Structures are given as structure tokens and as C-alpha cells.
């Protein structure tokens, strides 16, 4: 089974209403995708934290939708998992 390793922000924002709804939905989808790819790579949160130079607590908060990463942090995390990040602004 192949899991998509691309974060497509346009798809994540599809079919969402107001700006707050978009933010919440994006957090939830992003956190689920990070967790999915990490687990598919058989990585622990600790290992991902070490590889991406991001605190383990931050990884946990991201995966639970409690925090939203900065772009540089998100890039370090995705690159550490062998994933890519696509951002499209319309």
C-alpha cells in the first residue's frame, strides 16, 4: 500500500467555509497527515523530533492539532520523513 507523501494545501482547504473553519480544518488535516506519514515510516515521535531538530513536545502538539507549525518547522518535519510540502496561494 502506497501512502501519498505530499502535503497539498489546496486539497486541505477544499470545501471549507469561513476563515476560522479553514484554520481549524487545516490544523486537523495537517496533524493527521503528519501522524500518518510518520507511522507509515515506522518512526516514533522521538525519532522524528531528533531527525527534524524539533522538540518532541512540539511534534506531539502538532499531531494532536494543538499547535500549528511555522513554515520552516513544517519543512524540517516533512523533509525528515521524506515527504514534500506544496503550498499554493490563490
Automatic annotation (TrEMBL):
The record lists the lineage as: Bacteria, Bacillati, Bacillota, Bacilli, Bacillales
Official protein name in the record: HTH cro/C1-type domain-containing protein
Question: Which InterPro entries does UniProt cross-reference here?
Answer: Cro/C1-type_HTH, Lambda_DNA-bd_dom_sf, TransReg_Diox_bact_type
- In its keyword annotation, does this UniProt entry include Endoplasmic reticulum? no
Task: State the species of origin.
Answer: Listeria newyorkensis
Q: Which residues form a coiled coil?
A: none
Q: Where is the HTH cro/C1-type domain?
A: 34-88
Q: Which UniProt keywords apply?
A: DNA-binding
User: Which superkingdom, per the lineage?
Assistant: Bacteria
